[in-house]
Amino acid sequence: MDQRTKRPVRGFTVLELAIALALIAVAAGTAALVWSRIAAALRLEAGIHQLAADLHDARVVAVASASRTRLAFVRGQTSYRIERADDDGTFHLAMRRPLPRGLRVDDANSGGDLVFSARGNAENGTVVLVDERGVRASLRLNQRGRVTIDRGRT
User: Fold this and answer.
1) Domain ranges in the chain?
2) Report field, pTM of the whole predicted structure over 0.85
3) What is the DSSP string of 51-102?
4) H helix and E strand count, the chain
5) 14-153 CATH fold
6) Model pLDDT, residue 1
7) Which residues in the chain show pLDDT less than 50?
8) CA–CA distances in Å: residue 9 to residues 2, 15, 20
9) Cβ neighbours for 134, distance < 8 A, ≥ 6 positions apart
10) Please, are residues 118 and 66 in contact by the beta-carbon 8 Å criterion?
């Protein structure tokens, strides 16, 4: 009993606890259903930004080394190659980059290669990534080496 008010101290009733637990269960269930879509969207965003960063780095390497550099894509693959040209113009593998889990290359025009010249210029090209939900995001490279990201293409 509370000595100041002379009323008995009461806790929660069973009904109040049941309602609170039901609300928590509904919220947790909804979050669990939505989480897979949120995680897939985050992986797609990470993959397209990884690709943009690698294109930027390839351009810098091409200019710094005064040699051609390219990113090579194969449709349906979950990774891509970063290659550098030697003095004879033959490309050699510098690194193979995996895409985040659940992503693959859906399309790559310009023959599947995005090439930077020794001056940092490039060929126009587009690469499309797709996740397990079928949601696509594309990245465009223009002749000046500028990268533009298009999110959520279907």
Assistant:
1) 14-153
2) no
3) HHHHHHHHHHHHHHHTS-EEEE--TT-SEEEEEEE-TTS-EEEEEEEEPPTT
4) 1, 8
5) minor pseudopilin epsh fold (3.55.40)
6) 56
7) 154
8) 6, 17, 20
9) 154
10) yes
